[in-house]
Amino acid sequence: MDEISRLSDSLVSSAVLSGVESQGTPSVSSNNDLPEPVPATESRCVLEDFVQCSKSHLWKLMMSFYDRKGVESWSQGIVPHFITCNSFIGSSYAKVLHGYIRDALRLNKLNTNEPLYIIELGAGSGKFSYFMLKALYEMRDVCDFPFNKIVYVMTDFTENNFKFWKSHPSLKMYFDMGVLDAGIFDAVNDDKINLFFSGKVISKGSCVNPVCVVANYLFDTLYHDIFQVDGGQLKEGTSLTHSLTYLLTHSLTRDRFG
Ligand SMILES: C[S@@+](CC[C@H](N)C(=O)[O-])C[C@H]1O[C@@H](n2cnc3c(N)ncnc32)[C@H](O)[C@@H]1O
Hints:
4-stranded parallel sheet; 2 domains; Rossmann fold; 5-stranded antiparallel sheet; 32% helix; binds S-adenosylmethionine
């Protein structure tokens, strides 16, 4: 059994909607040398009873995972990222942004003397940010907005990722040019970003130009609820978080899971 399958099997969240149970598979735990799973039985350890999905303990477990692991989530291949972090997708986002800039300039919605902030939420390892920024840099001569007025802002809720980017050699050129900045920002709870390099604060009403937001492979990570329209009736799902026998059995037989 491969590592991802093991993780999925060790802790699951079941969503109940209209009395039908279905299982989601969050990545909440990691251990490189897990023993082979024991045969499953019916028993399981309920960590939290059914609650409204956005209130589930699951989200805290997931944030704890990202916080503890930092960039190892990507360097160890735990979080899939090839499809979301490559030069093709980076340049595709840059082209969409160019299209927006062209339209907004035509409608006099942008002031070219003021910064245009592009805020990336949940930037993770920063690999996608690098590819998008590189594409913007390469397109600078064909963009009607001055490149040195663009400020790409990498954010994530965890300081561990932030520490990794701010000293990364591949990003240094952009930090030095002033077209890249970084800050810690929780996309669920925060309402302002302190920019580490410029010292500026981005908050409601602080920017002259509209703010562009990039959220690449992020929304599945943010608290959300479950709804279903069934026969014209709106129904809400609830979520149960529990271990499977695999985790329960090993927590009883080995000390490692505490
Ligand atoms: C699936 S990863 C995607 C990372 C990156 N955007 C990519 O495309 O590879 C989700 C990222 O969202 C971050 N994250 C999770 N909850 C967050 C929150 N409430 N606010 C900001 N970032 C969050 C995690 O730390 C992680 O870096």
